[in-house]
């Protein structure tokens, strides 16, 4: 059984972000998920019958997140948020090939576990969502007051 998708032809850096989600950590036992991309051009090409959707209302924003997963194995595959209809979150583990994909941003760094190292390729780290404040290099819990300095 395969679930196939067609992804927009975008450079990998336009797709990738790492999200340290407390919801994932507490409820689904995942520390983070690496994904994020433009919804335009994203198409499920096969296996749609194997997908199920869970509406997750336990989010920081209070807005429900639609989590699509495989009915057979339970793997998280795609997420959609009403806060931004232009993006789809595609779990990197759901893809056959993603070696060229490197995160260019991190979100919800406030929830990043202390034992996780910061990703070197990241250009921006956000305390919470990408619409919020940048993380300071010296203090991961306070908003940035100056431009982000890449490590």
TrEMBL record:
Which keywords label this protein? Metal-binding, Zinc
Q: Which SUPFAM superfamilies match?
A: Mss4-like
Q: Which GO terms describe its molecular function?
A: carbon-sulfur lyase activity; metal ion binding
- What sequence ranges are listed for the domain CENP-V/GFA? 41-109
Q: Which domain of life is it from?
A: Eukaryota
Question: Could you say which protein family the record assigns here?
Answer: Belongs to the Gfa family.
State what protein this is by name.
CENP-V/GFA domain-containing protein
Q: What is the lineage of its organism?
A: Eukaryota, Fungi, Dikarya, Ascomycota, Pezizomycotina
């Amino acid at each position: 059984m395969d679930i196939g998708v067609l992804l927009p032809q975008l450079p990998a850096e336009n797709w990738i972000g790492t999200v340290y989600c407390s919801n994932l950590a507490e409820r689904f036992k995942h520390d983070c998920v690496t994904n994020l991309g433009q919804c335009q051009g994203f198409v499920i090409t096969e296996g749609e019958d194997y997908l199920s959707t869970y509406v997750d209302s336990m989010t920081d924003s209070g807005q429900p997140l639609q989590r699509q997963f495989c009915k057979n194995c339970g793997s998280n595959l795609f997420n959609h948020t009403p806060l931004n209809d232009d993006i789809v979150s595609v779990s990197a583990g759901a893809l056959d090939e993603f070696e060229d994909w490197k995160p260019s941003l991190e979100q919800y760094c406030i929830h990043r576990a202390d034992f996780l190292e910061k990703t070197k390729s990241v250009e921006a780290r956000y305390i919470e969502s990408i619409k919020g404040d940048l993380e300071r290099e010296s203090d991961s819990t306070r908003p940035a007051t100056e431009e982000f300095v890449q490590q």
